[in-house]
Design brief:
- The structure is a homotetramer of 164-residue chains.
- The first copy, chain A, is an alpha+beta fold.
- Chain A has a single domain, classed as Thiol Ester Dehydrase, Chain A.
- Chain A is built from three helices and six strands.
- Chain A has a six-stranded antiparallel β-sheet.
- In chain A, strand 4 and strand 5 form a beta hairpin.
- Chains in contact: A-B, A-C, A-D, B-C, B-D, C-D.
Chain lengths: 164, 164, 164, 164
């Protein structure tokens, strides 16, 4: 259900750098629909959250990066809803890494149903130190893990250089 | 609970044009919190939805603009989460109109708790013709209603001229 | 919004004992509706939870019984759904105390919309000691508070005598 | 994910009548947890709803009983919560048929996590005629389908004889 999908980036200048997207299928529930009979726009954000947790709190942990289970604040969110999402057909999410800063990183999402892209989205996340309750810096291990899911390679992405 | 608040725009070039924000208080529920003990980021989108419906499906209807009760697709969403939102203190939302197109319009949101701005957000909405299930043009009546909640005055806002 | 309502019990043998119900109005959200266009049956349980928290975590605390804010496990739930609940009209909940045991108590709920009873329900609750994470006995103070909302008077109700 | 499980009934007088339970696994979401860190009691009702829909709106339809997709009102609900439900371990639901009336039927639920029974529940459902919006009688086909999931055999269960 959560096997990473190796795929070529769609980005034109990135022809030689295969990268991974984290791919998972999220079971849409009947109750995710609203009175208009489609998955509610707020519930899409919940489905994104669940996919992100499968990636960072389960898959990354299984890959040895346990610190991702620290709470993460969502500080920014954008969603473009391209097609109504129905209850019934499988909903596939592809997650990749966008910008990686010192104390934050961006996750990009693509939702697919019946082979159509139904939404594109991104969230900016800030990991929180459980002791202090304050934002903390990303670890080298976390940066390496996230970098493997970034469309551009590490050298050109200036990972860890830009501040937040 | 939903009386419009007349206020001066915070926009510097708009010193002479008072405009209205639609102000309402949304009751946060204990269940809006997630396992981290704050209102979940997806639930904030639900609270925005509820405020928007109080504005367009109740207040606008009471003001004589009944066509806003047609279903409206949310086609784009952005949220900036500025502070954690707690269960307990009143949550006030201020809604204003952003861009008004032929077949879409933007609603801007500011969330306040204990006099602090806790989030800023916007959604792009497309009204749907209930007969055809297709997007429909905004009516003159709807444009006038929305325009009264726009920070800039109607003349400079080119309302209804820009296409989507 | 949460003023207790003094009312005569509808119970025939209780003609001389006025008792209180905790009365509150819960704002139904558009998103509480499901694809069938009425408030979803699971969401009714959330509305009951919110009313219970207004009673025990806010009203009781204001009345000096602060220990009710300890977590409480819901161990049993029954709901009879009598009429569909709509988005729009005010939803009033009346809460009273049912059986009071040593380590548990029962809350009874009546939901009203447009003067019709739309559901009746009850939940059995077990207060949890925050230190040990284990069920704890009700305090005398809690028993007295709950007893004031019980249809029968304290003498005939054997409060605190029955074990769980 | 939704293959029916043939199992012997646990009912003592039913030693010779194997019957089926509908077995499915429901993916618990992180957002199903509440601020106490366990799956919320109201959300359990949503998980039951999803399992019921997998049974009656998907499995039964695949078995040729299409009329179960008509809306069904939940008129009564009971849940006994036996253990806290966690995010992480698989949640298995076993659904069987309880009483079958002329215009209603009862679904029984058992929830299992890590081989422990975490809840037992039942709901009384009333199928609705989509034309009139009124309760309708169960069809013979529906009664036969439901009867195959009833712990007692058809002869002793008086199916279709009891009125509602």
């Amino acid at each position: 259900m959560t096997t990473p999908l190796h795929q070529k980036s769609a980005h034109p200048e990135d022809t030689n750098q295969p990268h991974k997207a984290f791919r998972c299928e999220i079971a849409v529930r009947w109750s995710d629909q609203d009175a208009n009979g489609h998955v509610n726009n707020a519930r899409v954000v919940t489905l994104m959250e669940e996919a992100r947790l499968l990636w960072l709190n389960q898959h990354a942990v299984a890959a040895g990066v346990g610190s991702f289970t620290d709470p993460k604040f969502v500080v920014a969110l954008t969603v473009n809803y391209l097609k109504p999402i129905s209850y019934g057909p499988a909903l596939v999410l592809l997650l990749t890494t966008g910008r990686i800063g010192n104390r934050s990183f961006t996750v990009s999402y693509e939702g697919l149903q019946d082979s159509n892209t139904v939404f594109r989205a991104s969230t900016v996340l800030v990991p929180i130190d459980t002791g202090s309750g304050r934002p903390r810096a990303l670890t080298d291990e976390e940066i390496a893990y996230l970098g493997a899911y970034a469309p551009q390679d590490l050298e050109t992405n200036d990972i860890g250089v830009k501040d937040d």
